[in-house]
Amino acid sequence: MTEEAYEAIARLGTAPLWRYFGNLFNAEPRSRAVPYLWRYPELRPYLLHFADVLSLEEAERRVLMLVNPGLPDPPATTTTLYAGIQVILPGETAQAHRHSAGAFRFIIEGRGAYTTVNGERVHMHPGDLLLTPGWHWHDHAHEGDGPMLWLDGLDFPLVNALEAGFFELFGERTQKAEVPDDISSRQFIHGRLTPAWDPRPGPNSPIGNYPWTETARAFDAIAEDATGSDADGVVLEYTNPWNGGPVMPTIGCRIARLRPGFRGVVRRQTPSTIYHVVRGSGASRVDDQLLEWSEKDVFAVPGWARYQHVNSSTSQDAVLFSYTDAPAITALGLYREEVA
Ligand code: GTQ
């Protein structure tokens, strides 16, 4: 009788909470994502191979997605975030489009490419952070020599989970330049002197490019005087000059310098994090995995996973770019952290 009752309630579109309770209300989060490291020297030859055999007329974007083994379908890098490595060759263009997902590029190597974002050409140099916030038109073009490669970061796993994903192609292959090149970076890079004639406060930073030259200047300015974080080293947040907040409502970006011999404390937080090694080498213990990273590698730290960063060099800095879903998690009142 009781078994029949269970079948009957299932047919009525119901389920007994008492059989599911433990799965629905865990004592703490258990990410399906796993700690994982992608080694750049292993990926690069295949990026160049596909640059050779696949034209940009055949692919919307020529990108190797960094797929977390715990999140194969739909592919994602952490539960909420995506990372990919994109390559474009001299003379190529990548079709203009826009999506409600927010995106950025962190430039890895090459020279002479730019992305056009809502009519502004934004030029790329290694170490630059370029934003293409949600629903901004963007296409890429390369007028230099040699391949140009960068890290793409997007929030589409989160946006799709929220069923808020929209996508649209631009009417032409590329946008025309409508404002002077790199105008947004030049207007805003001084941070505390913002244009008073055209305030456009919105949820996104108005800066097209946070150039590496300014990042290096920021580190130089504080030099050895900064205390830094016990877990994350001398860590700086890229901010929205309108409000001092994160660069986009769903994605926060940071850059950290781990001094020679740095050994972080063990920490965990509800946001998930994707790291890109700008410089140096070291290791991060993430739950039970030891991720031994070198320059240009990418690694994923799932939400609520314990992590500890170590700069294994006693003479060289390590520099880690990172991004998280912390702005979204914080806005929803779900941010937690713990230092072991
Ligand atoms: O360059 O616009 O890796 O739209 C994924 C989706 C890059 C891009 C990605 C995209 C792009």
From TrEMBL:
Transport is among the record's keywords: no
Superkingdom of origin organism: Bacteria
Keywords: Dioxygenase, Oxidoreductase
The Cupin type-2 domain, residue ranges: 85-152
InterPro entries reported for this sequence: Cupin_2, GDO-like, RmlC-like_jellyroll, RmlC_Cupin_sf
Protein name in UniProt: Cupin domain-containing protein
Gene source species: Plantactinospora sonchi
